[in-house]
Amino acid sequence: MLFNKLAIIDSTLREGEQSCYANFSSEDKIEIAKELNAFGVEYIEVTSPCASPQSYKDCHILANSGFNSKILTHIRCNLDDAKKALDTGVNGINIFMATSPLLRKFGHGKEINQVIDLASEVISFIHQQSPEIELRFSTEDSFRSSLPDLLKVYLAIAELGVVNRLGISDTVGVATPQQVSQLVQTLHQCFSQDIEFHAHNDTGCAIANSYAAFEAGATHLDTSVLGIGERNGITPLAGLIARLYTFDSEALRNKYNLNNLLNLHQIVANKLGVEIPLNHCLVSEHAFTHKAGVHTKAILNNSNTYEQISPTDFGLTRKVLINHKLTGYHALTHRVNELGLELDSTQIQVITREIKELAERKKLTLENVDQILLSYSNISARKVN
Ligand code: HCA
Ligand code: CU
């Protein structure tokens, strides 16, 4: 588990394009790529140039835009796709081919030996044409493939001596963190190549699985902004960042421009025509909102009590809600002080009860609460005079 070696391969512009919400124009792709580059992901994976004429043009433009993030494209394992990908000038090519019995039978129709032969031919061809290009080969549907089949394929690919990364893909999101950990460890022990992991989120385990892969020695993790992808998508970038933050926040701050995260998400959400989901890590509207009296009291005393992640590291601010029936004396005292009002503890206790009662009957706004506090403050000012 080496943080320095860790690289994020963001696939918003490849897997993300496979989301039912996505229909990115060339301008959209350039704007998103700029934001990903500004955030500092190490790699941006873009849709295959074979997908459509526009995809070819976009891949070419992005590959030649001079980003710090390396541009990868993602192709099927055949020579025609490889030739087109080479034409675009990308920094690297991610090749995939299914190894599970189901996808072999009902997908490409090849036996394991044929997979090995074809992959060897395609990989060797690309390397001959462009020895400096980064290459990755991934076994699609790794967790429904047999281990002997996987090892046979990885061994043959590794022996070519030209592939930088071996890819593991939980294509249908069935793996558990323990299974991911075991497979990554096995590859880590057997091969010297870097390991990339791609997690789908069908059972809600994508972030945990990606983190398990990292702990077990994977160096490259695939993400997309908001987790968009086929079906319900893959490991969300913000979720992975939150997970990594709790591992080493300082290293994370040095590696990525965390202040850019929200903007990146807003831009992508906007282009998808959706809101950032209400429970999304770090960037959802209330990811740093505290409500219940027990929480607000402690958080106002020391923010570490209920925040393992500091919003300020992401250029964000915490919110403390007081306009509801779960509010408490301490949170209201804090608001009294914020407003510069002079109210004693008995008065604040009375106000706390009043607000709780009122909130049982109707929805209160912060302005409603402020008005109540102000009216009490005016009453006590009049009494003093
Ligand atoms: C796909 C399949 C893929 C490939 C992942 C990889 C998957 O949609 O083309 O290349 O590692 O989930 O298996 O996204
Ligand atoms: Cu996928």
Which labels suit this protein?
8-stranded parallel barrel; 10 strands; alpha/beta; elongated; single chain; about 375 residues; 15 helices; binds 3-hydroxy-3-carboxy-adipic acid; binds copper (II) ion; TIM Barrel; 2 domains; Recoverin, domain 1; two-stranded parallel sheet
Physical arrangement of strands within the biggest beta sheet: 1-2-3-4-5-6-7-8
Strand content: 5-15%
Structural category: alpha/beta
Mean pLDDT over the full residue set: 97
Q: Write down the CATH class of the largest domain.
A: Alpha Beta
Associated small molecules: 3-hydroxy-3-carboxy-adipic acid, copper (II) ion
Rg, Å, rounded: 26 Å
Tell me roughly what share of residues is in helical segments. 40-55%
Q: Tell me the CATH architecture of the largest domain.
A: Alpha-Beta Barrel
How far apart are the termini? 68 Å
The total strand number stands at: 10
- Which parts are unreliable, with pLDDT below 50 for 5 consecutive residues or more? none
Count of domains: 2
How would you describe this structure to a colleague?
- It is built from 15 helices and ten strands.
- With 385 residues, it is of the alpha/beta class.
- It has two domains: 270 residues, Aldolase class I (TIM Barrel, Alpha-Beta Barrel); 96 residues, Recoverin, domain 1.
- The strands form two sheets. It has an eight-stranded parallel barrel, surrounded by eight helices. A two-stranded parallel ribbon has the order 9-10.
- α8 crosses α9.
- 43% of the residues are buried.
- Bound molecules: 3-hydroxy-3-carboxy-adipic acid and copper (II) ion (CU).
